[in-house]
Amino acid sequence: xxxxxxxxxxxxxxxxxxxxxxxxxxxxxxxxxxxxxxxxxxxxxxxxxxxxxxxxxxxxxxxxxxxxxxxxxxxxxxxxxxxxxxxxxxxxxxxxxxxxxxxxxxxxxxxxxxxxxxxxxxxxxxxxxxxxxxxxxxxxxxxxxxxxxxxxxx
Length: 154
Known about the structure:
The chain is α/β, with parallel strands linked by helices. It has one domain: Alpha/beta knot (3-Layer(aba) Sandwich). The chain is 47% helix and 22% strand. The two termini are 25 Å apart.
């Protein structure tokens, strides 16, 4: 079974988003072992210090999991759902665990981006980290269904 880890700064505090995340995590159980690791948001007041603190902790967590890291970032590559499925399939075929990284409110440092196999954006629009997690889980599920050849993605 494929292993996927989500490394996320912050918790999901909105009930309907948390419910959506649980729904997709439940759906994904049939295709992959998905774990969510939440890192607490930095208590630094300065946005740059907060970004650096969170990024250092994410890099440390990425090193522990030793998977192919895909960082979500507004500066990342645009991908269609089918292109994302191809990326997921390549990682699955190699047998390497995957990590998806979602930063905090002020984003990520360049060091986090450099530590990743790929840097992708969910959209040209900006979402909260909570919404990003829900959208990412849906896209991972969609990609798994595309790989499987189901009718979920038309």
